[in-house]
Design a protein that fits this description.
about 625 residues; alpha+beta; eight-stranded mixed beta sheet; six-stranded mixed beta sheet; about 30% helix
């Protein structure tokens, strides 16, 4: 693929996933280089990103920038491996964050399993200010000192502070933070700094998550910075922008990895004339899906691993069905995931004694051929895929299945289960929200996306699929195409008809600090008496009201009658990222015909074209499949 000459040093765009780390490098001579390494291989290297950079550029290369999306914060949250954290709460409210919103995700469960709270200790602190600002109880500074001293003694290195009405009246939180500075905490986060929402539960949970995750994330950032000398280092944020390393926070990194793929999918689709996009990122551990129709959809207070976060995140739905998802025959039915074989030991075909996975189904069905894969498997990292191990393990599984089935029928059955799970995930972000999937293009990427794209598309009624030639590297590409961004929020908390819209926008514009950027304004609106906010472009009051009513009708199926309330107004500043044209993408011209069934090996991914699908190869090398 031809690219323009890069007059600077090396540029690295890296996606560190749960199984593989994908690296896209723009060399000084303009050539594009790729690398794919296991994310964890302690016997061969300490860090996959640093090792990939060394292999591609050498030990003393001139590196202009490194951009990295990582699942470090995601995994720490899911597996509860963050820093030990203490929490200071207003007296009488110590259990509020654990009680949460009292939602029951499984209404008929007899034994409710609640995720463990992120904090290890919580302390009641006397001190109270009313909503109107009246001092009811003075802040007990002695209680703050006693709590901090005890938290340090019990091993807590991070501290979160969340007081009632702390957003509107932050003085007590700020004073408690000043006191905590004397006790040696690595991280101290106040809720009014972490969130601009008045609600105590999401504001407090966001502060706790930030305190819990930031030390882990900082440790990883420091590790990469110490291993790689680059003039600039950026990290992908959950909202689809990038941040400089020193400003990268734990609360902004929960969807750092998947966000890059969504940006890449949209850019590729737009370059080839599609404006309605379903992003389908099937990796080794999970599958991430998202919807785009002219703008990136952001989640409103997403709940991740039982923690409600007031952080802007791309609206991405994740299902535990990836290439490494483990296969089980249990209770008389085929089951896929949620457990994953990961990078160690990996699928059975990796030759390290791992379990059967979705990847092994493709190997058994000869959709994935060992001779078309690099020799990076086995105990020494130099062997091909082990098909014999796959066959042997399927034979063992076959003995437990009644009525008897052939090995290929078993593999097909597991694939059907996995594809149905992924199709349901797509429906949750489209059809279940009143969005018709007809007229959309499915952009399939990730190491396993092209293997299941046709089957998933048929299940959701989509007849167009787009596969980029670097589909296995599209998340890394998206990270490179993303511009640096900053966001500021201002709580308004008043009726739309009396809200100071223009004044708030002017204040945010003056406060945001990002040169050479464009600024967009949004507003969170809700009906009076409701707590479900809808984000709309912040323009005039009349236009905002109309946009709110239309979105409300589409999402909930009934008209929004009543007074509209403005929760907050946000300013999002974003710089232009690297342009897709720099990688030679022009899109549009047909150069070849493809007729299914077919298997098309690629760089980092394999595409399987099912019967009934035909396709053309476009000028940028992308494959456009049509049913």
């Amino acid at each position: 693929m031809g690219v323009r000459k890069n007059m600077d040093g090396w540029r690295f765009w890296i996606d560190r996933g749960g199984t593989f780390t994908d690296v896209l490098a723009l060399a000084p001579d303009g050539s594009l280089k790729t690398a794919k390494l296991l994310s964890e291989s302690p016997q061969h290297y300490a860090d996959a990103a640093a090792e990939a950079i060394r292999r591609l550029a050498g030990d003393k290369a001139d590196i202009t920038e490194v951009r990295l999306g990582t699942t470090v914060a995601t995994n720490a949250l899911l597996e509860r491996r963050g820093e030990k954290t203490a929490l200071l709460m207003t007296r009488g409210l110590r259990d509020v964050l654990e009680i949460g919103s009292q939602n029951r995700p499984d209404l008929f469960a007899l034994h409710v399993k609640r995720p463990a709270p992120l904090y290890s200790a919580v302390y009641d602190i006397p001190g109270r200010v009313s909503l109107a600002g009246e001092r009811l109880v003075d802040l007990d500074e002695t209680a703050v000192r006693v709590a901090c001293q005890d938290a340090i003694k019990t091993g807590c290195k991070a501290l979160a502070i969340a007081f009632l009405h702390g957003l509107r009246h932050p003085a007590d939180e700020a004073r408690a933070k000043d006191i905590a500075a004397d006790y040696g905490f690595e991280t101290v986060v106040c809720s009014h700094e972490a969130s601009s929402r008045h609600k105590l539960v999401p504001r407090g949970q966001t502060a706790v998550a930030d305190a819990y995750l930031s030390p882990v994330l900082r440790g990883y950032v420091d590790q990469v910075e110490s291993a790689v000398e680059a003039r600039a280092m950026y990290f992908m944020k959950s909202d689809g922008g990038v941040s400089k390393a020193q400003g990268f926070r734990g609360k902004d990194a929960v969807l750092s990895g998947p966000a890059g793929g969504i940006v890449g999918a949209v850019e590729i689709a737009n370059a080839n004339g599609f404006d309605k996009v379903i992003a389908f990122d099937m990796g080794g551990t999970s599958t991430d899906v998202a919807h785009y129709a002219g703008g990136y959809a952001l989640s409103d207070m997403p709940e991740i691993a039982g923690v409600k976060l007031d952080v802007p995140m791309l609206d991405i739905h994740t299902v535990a069905a990836g290439g490494g998802s483990i296969l089980r025959y249990q209770d008389g039915r085929f089951q896929v995931g949620p457990q994953s074989a990961g990078a160690q030991p990996g699928p059975a075909s990796y030759g390290l004694g791992g379990p059967l996975t979705i990847t092994d189904c493709h190997v058994l069905l000869e959709r994935l051929k060992p001779e078309e894969f690099p020799h990076v498997f086995g105990p020494n990292g130099d062997a091909p895929l082990d098909k014999a191990a796959v066959v042997e393990k399927f034979k063992v599984l076959q003995q437990s299945i009644e009525p008897p089935m052939t090995l290929k029928a078993i593999a097909q059955g597991f694939l059907d289960v996995a594809c149905e799970q992924m199709a349901r995930a797509i429906k949750s972000v489209t059809q279940e929200r009143g969005i018709d999937t007809k007229g959309h293009v499915l952009v399939a990427f990730g190491g396993a996306g092209g293997q299941c794209a046709c089957r998933v598309a048929e299940r959701i009624g989509v007849t167009d699929i787009l596969l980029y030639p670097l589909a296995g590297m599209l998340s890394a590409l998206g990270i490179g195409l993303t511009g640096e961004s900053k966001r500021l929020d201002e709580a308004v908390d008043t009726a739309l008809e009396t809200a100071p819209i223009a004044q708030t926008k002017d204040a945010l514009k003056d406060a945001i600090d990002l040169e050479d950027s464009t600024i967009e304004f949004t507003a969170d609106l809700r009906l009076e008496g409701s707590d479900m906010a809808i984000t709309v472009p912040c323009t005039t009051a009349d236009d905002m009201a109309e946009a709110f009513r239309q979105t409300h009708q589409q999402r909930f199926g009934f008209q929004a009658d009543g007074t509209i309330h403005v929760d907050r107004i946000s300013a999002i500043a974003k710089r232009q990222g690297h342009r897709l044209e720099a990688l030679g993408v022009t899109g549009g011209t047909q150069t070849a015909d493809i007729v299914g069934p077919a298997v098309i090996p690629g760089d980092g991914s394999t595409t399987i074209v099912e019967p009934g699908w035909t396709g053309t190869r476009l000028q940028d090398g992308s494959i456009h499949l049509k049913l």
